[in-house]
Amino acid sequence: MNLRADDRKAALAGLAQVELAERPLVLLDLRQTSTFLLMPFDGLSQRPQVTFRTRSYETVRAAVAAGFGASILNMRPLARVTAEEKGLVRRPILDDLPAPTLIVVDIYGRQKPSFVKGLTETIAAFFRDLGPSRFAVTTREREAQLLAR
Fold it and tell me: Which one of 87, 107, 115, 124 is at 20 to 30 Å from 49 when CA atoms are compared?
């Protein structure tokens, strides 16, 4: 989760999902992404109030840094920190939530041509070589779950 750097909870190692539900939320409002990001709150008695919606990762991070609310993103940006990001911190959600899954769909079934096999191997190698600490905000104990095949 992303919090403004001067938030009273920013110094914590992580936050429970219920703590996020009590705050204003800046939502990455893409077609399936917004549903995925809000779904974990379905089991709680409270959902966060979405106070700002955008279709841009950069705008989500800038809005959090500007104090519009907290946010959840489904992947950590790979680029270096931007000027707007200096005002925010990333903390893991400590609840046991399902890890996001990246699925590559093709029409070939078991008879994949070599270029499709090469593509899926390249994608898997990219995330494996990058390592969970670079593409996710998680705890050490959960990093291995993010590389399951």
Answer: 87
For residues 135 and 127, the answer to whether their CB atoms sit within 8 Å is yes
Q: Minimal CA–CA distance to 26: which of 43, 8, 1?
A: 1
Fold category of 2-90 in CATH: D-Maltodextrin-Binding Protein; domain 2 (3.40.190)
Is 20 in contact with 70 (CB distance < 8 Å)?
Answer: yes
pTM of the model: 0.76
Where do the structural domains in the chain lie, given as residue ranges?
2-90, 99-149
pLDDT in tens, 91-134: 998 888 777 777 888 999 999 999 999 999 998 898 888 888 77
Q: What is the pLDDT of residues 30-46, one digit of tens each?
A: 988 888 888 888 888 88
Q: 137, 91 in Cβ contact below 8 A? A: yes
